[in-house]
């Protein structure tokens, strides 16, 4: 009998990948995905611990699920997975004792056992171990969901930036062997995937058998059917020469790189333990653009890190102006329990953080808008992977991750199509398909 599984995902792309893999693991038990908790036999909240707000959402969601289950009067397994589960497993069981399963990001290959145990025990099952066996060795083949897919190649972090919980919630750096990654990539290509995003908390720290990420990218790009490649998220410290060269040499590698900078102030970068300074980043940006002149950069920023002065913040605005980012995520610093920065003196008052965030976001938005505007009249390739709001319309992503919609493009879902950008809309670009014979080489 089929049972319905609803997985709600918070946080980063790694969690999106993990959610899909949890569904793969549960499929042999008869669980098929459903899009809401109402009818679900099992609900998994795949959680994120990165900022306080993200974490707290979990408890309100759990409250709603408890009510729903009681009103329905029909059993529902409630599981909490991901980084909040890892960091606060015991706390979850204390604050929400009605939860059936709590599991960390490294144990979800054991989900079938946990489900069986939860059914038997009547009590909660908690598994937040960092097991010696890598979960990847126990996962079934992935089921592609469309023409674009994530492929996790690296996990965990040894960098210990002083603001960040990831090294604690995900554990140390682990690289999957190249052969396992290539097998998974070939399987996804066989299922019709044309665009792959290689994932890792520090994806460019990936290494296996003397290969670095640049070599892996070349090998994946050589797989039949894979025509677009991306990787995320990178650390500036791990951009080696070969990886930069791959941007010049591998056509399939999209000219877009998410390379978080966090701050433009040397003092703050040092206090964050980012282990590079602003000049190193500026040089890196320059070398990448020499390698691939159409490359655009995206970044993350934190404002209001403890001790950040007006002058430090001005350095951030200055480097943003110098580099120009096309897409950015910026956040107010959130003190996370157990991280070194949470105990630093000189925490920045909330209103100051808010003011700085607003100023930075206004500048970043201006840059994104200018970039979008400059795309008008340009030709680019778009992977049209989903239907749009209007009949006959398809939507996809440009090389720069901009959502692009194309009208009356026929049945070309799942294909990479050459388009010319026609208009900028508030949340997307409108484009027209270019006839095949006029296509650029
Ligand atoms: N590995 C990536 C980032 C992963 S976390 C890197 O090294 O850049 C994603 C983003 O969340 C970070 O880039 C950072 O901007 C933000 N972030 C992490 N911890 C935070 C905190 N305590 N407060 C505010 N933002 C935070
Ligand atoms: Fe967090 Fe820093 Fe590791 Fe990125 S590199 S995951 S910000 S500790
Ligand atoms: Fe959040 Fe964990 Fe990702 S804390 S950002 S889900 S690694």
Automatic annotation (TrEMBL):
[4Fe-4S] cluster 2 binds at residues 157, 161, 164. Binds 2 [4Fe-4S] clusters. One cluster is coordinated with 3 cysteines and an exchangeable S-adenosyl-L-methionine. It holds the Pfam family TRAM. It comes from Magnetospirillum moscoviense. InterPro entries: Elp3/MiaA/NifB-like_rSAM, Methylthiotransferase, Methylthiotransferase_CS, Methylthiotransferase_N, Methylthiotransferase_N_sf, MiaB_methiolase, rSAM, rSAM_horseshoe. Catalyzes the methylthiolation of N6-(dimethylallyl)adenosine (i(6)A), leading to the formation of 2-methylthio-N6-(dimethylallyl)adenosine (ms(2)i(6)A) at position 37 in tRNAs that read codons beginning with uridine. Monomer. PROSITE patterns: MTTASE_N (PS51449), MTTASE_RADICAL (PS01278), RADICAL_SAM (PS51918), TRAM (PS50926). Its main location: cytoplasm. PANTHER family: CDK5 REGULATORY SUBUNIT-ASSOCIATED PROTEIN 1, MITOCHONDRIAL TRNA METHYLTHIOTRANSFERASE CDK5RAP1. GO terms for cellular component: cytosol. The gene is miaB. GO terms for molecular function: 4 iron, 4 sulfur cluster binding; metal ion binding; tRNA-2-methylthio-N(6)-dimethylallyladenosine(37) synthase activity. [4Fe-4S] cluster 1 binds at residues 12, 48, 83. It is found in: Cytoplasm. It catalyses: 2-thio-N(6)-dimethylallyladenosine(37) in tRNA + S-adenosyl-L-methionine = 2-methylsulfanyl-N(6)-dimethylallyladenosine(37) in tRNA + S-adenosyl-L-homocysteine + H(+); N(6)-dimethylallyladenosine(37) in tRNA + (sulfur carrier)-SH + AH2 + S-adenosyl-L-methionine = 2-thio-N(6)-dimethylallyladenosine(37) in tRNA + (sulfur carrier)-H + 5'-deoxyadenosine + L-methionine + A + H(+); N(6)-dimethylallyladenosine(37) in tRNA + (sulfur carrier)-SH + AH2 + 2 S-adenosyl-L-methionine = 2-methylsulfanyl-N(6)-dimethylallyladenosine(37) in tRNA + (sulfur carrier)-H + 5'-deoxyadenosine + L-methionine + A + S-adenosyl-L-homocysteine + 2 H(+). This is tRNA-2-methylthio-N(6)-dimethylallyladenosine synthase. CDD domains: Radical_SAM. Residues 3-120 form the MTTase N-terminal domain. It is an enzyme of class 2 (transferase). Belongs to the methylthiotransferase family. MiaB subfamily. Its EC number is 2.8.4.3.
